[in-house]
Amino acid sequence: MKRITIILLMLASNFAMAQNLRIITYNIRLNIASDGIITSELNDSRSISKKAPYGPVGTFNSFKFDAPMKDRIDYVFVSNQIEVKRYAVLTDSRDQRYPSDHQPVIVNLELKSGKKK
Question: What domain range includes position 60?
Answer without folding.
Answer: 10-111
